């Protein structure tokens, strides 16, 4: 297996395509975006990530992106499907991009090809949706071609856990599909590859990984609300509990859950189980709690300003951070995108700034956002904010209220400086 096609050059597909090129594969990338194709072929990453930018630059000429399916899939030994799988407005799985990718593969499928779905999907998707579409080619899965699922495990911006160092799990429609998928990943990563007995187990594994996080974040978010009432510092409590060397894993509260995985994946399991007559009450409650944090941020802003004799209506707010996590330009399901309209509905005047996302900022600098502001709301703890927003600097700007949605700042230092400071549960 030395010729590969990666369908979808986003947060998952682009790093995979670069890794394959570095490992000596002849790689083509199939994309729907002309802009992404042009940038990739020019050695430019369309994703803001220092490491990935270097990777794309170094594999220029080895990774060939195109919008032409026949060209991309021609002679490919392995096809990795890395397209988005979001949920719709009713929180039901939207698999249109996956179906479209499978149609393109079916039209160019040949005997011996290995098709691997990396996109996050609910249990049963590979066999019930992907396989029938692919078999419209006249070829049979597990006999004429091979079909497997290896759930992606990309963490944008994570400098410790890069793609080659992350263990993978694979499942397939038959033993040979699993075996071939295991060999493929064994060629490109430096971590263990666990082969599972069924493709549904592989599909479920990814859902469980992220649902686990969603549930635990919901737990600490609810604790944060409770501890605000009880006047207990939730961050101090979590750090204290973390001294126990077994049986506890720290999670921290925030303004909600962002990213394509944690905020979306639970809905896939909820929807699939519902089709079989099972109601995931616990998962639905976790989603409800985490989504409620958006409104809670607004409540805290109202309370903080009222305590200073001010109203949120017409208040000038420096709203800092749009990305869902620090130091990246990824806005997928970012809580900030939901909090901003809620604040505006209350009449707040927002000066929005994110150094990584100029297109969604309405001021050009942190300085401009802070000028004359009544309050600061930090929704994303970018390093630029952590370095610049010292108690001395904020006090000099005469900003009375500071709401830290990520509990990333030293609240004691701010309070000593005479600034009304509030964290989530702190």
From TrEMBL:
It is an enzyme of class 1 (oxidoreductase). Its EC number is 1.1.1.336. GO terms for biological process: polysaccharide biosynthetic process. SUPFAM superfamilies: 6-phosphogluconate dehydrogenase C-terminal domain-like, NAD(P)-binding Rossmann-fold domains, UDP-glucose/GDP-mannose dehydrogenase C-terminal domain. The keyword Oxidoreductase applies. InterPro entries: 6-PGluconate_DH-like_C_sf, NAD(P)-bd_dom_sf, UDP-Glc/GDP-Man, UDP-Glc/GDP-Man_DH_C, UDP-Glc/GDP-Man_DH_C_sf, UDP-Glc/GDP-Man_DH_dimer, UDP-Glc/GDP-Man_DH_N, UDP_ManNAc/GlcNAc_DH. Transmembrane segments: none annotated. It comes from the Archaea. Keywords: NAD, Oxidoreductase. Residues 318-411 form the UDP-glucose/GDP-mannose dehydrogenase C-terminal domain. It catalyses: UDP-N-acetyl-alpha-D-mannosamine + 2 NAD(+) + H2O = UDP-N-acetyl-alpha-D-mannosaminouronate + 2 NADH + 3 H(+). One of its GO terms (molecular function) is oxidoreductase activity, acting on the CH-CH group of donors, NAD or NADP as acceptor. Pfam families: UDPG_MGDP_dh, UDPG_MGDP_dh_C, UDPG_MGDP_dh_N. Belongs to the UDP-glucose/GDP-mannose dehydrogenase family. This is UDP-N-acetyl-D-mannosamine dehydrogenase.
